[in-house]
Design goal:
The chain is of the alpha/beta class. Helices cover 25% and strands 29% of the residues. It is built from 7 helices and 14 strands.
Length: 214
């Protein structure tokens, strides 16, 4: 139905945004696309976190997998604007969970707006894990939906270290709204599907997680 409406372009096993459409792909479509890659990325990202750390989790299907990979960490503080992540993290036995306010971006379970950004301004976290619609060597980290950008910027400002988690299909792409330059993030974690010539463009900040068939 989304493809018929011109909001997404169907691909093998999934869908991707149509250039210029500016619409979020519903979570139900995104969650199973490149699941193995997202799991590998999430496990590599979660390995950076120590027990007792404070972690900001951006909304998205890859950051949800980061939450899953963090389940065995102890004494975490988790801040998020994603209702699905909040529900999952609430089941952790030893966690302090803080959920932003804001307006719901329905199909992707994301809280956005001024209240969400202001909420983050009151905290100082060890880590922020951000999703991305596109990662480019000169355009940096960009997003299809402009409404999410202020919250993502607030996440970067609230964290000592920012890690972008994005599968290889996002690289070399540009989306409408700029989130951050590459030098504003600490690391970018992707999967082993990224071509070697592309990897060289991102230097030492790139972390490549080996994808294992599951």
């Amino acid at each position: 139905a989304l493809a018929r409406d011109g909001k997404v372009q169907r691909t093998h096993g999934g869908a991707k945004p149509v250039d210029g459409a500016g619409h979020e792909i519903p979570y139900a479509l995104k969650k199973d696309v490149r699941r193995g890659e997202k799991t590998a990325i999430a496990e590599a990202a979660a390995a950076m976190v120590a027990d007792g750390d404070s972690v900001v989790l951006d909304s998205g299907s890859t950051t949800y997998e980061v939450a899953v990979a963090l389940r065995n960490k102890e004494s975490l503080t988790v801040l998020t604007n994603d209702l699905r992540i909040a529900k999952y993290v609430a089941s952790f036995p030893d966690v302090r969970l803080l959920v932003s306010g804001g307006e719901l971006l329905g199909s992707v379970y994301t809280l956005i707006g001024e209240h969400a950004a202001q909420f983050l301004s009151h905290y100082s976290a060890d880590w922020a894990f951000l999703g991305a619609d596109a990662v480019h060597p000169t355009a940096g980290i960009t997003n299809t939906n402009t409404l999410e950008v202020p919250v993502k910027r607030a996440m970067i400002a609230a964290a000592a270290r920012t890690v972008v988690v994005a599968d290889h299909s996002k690289f070399g792409q540009r989306a409408l709204a700029r989130v951050a330059a590459l030098d504003e993030v600490t690391s970018i974690v992707t999967d082993s599907g990224l071509d070697e010539d592309q990897r060289a463009l991102y230097g030492d900040r790139l972390v490549v997680a080996e994808t294992v068939s599951r």
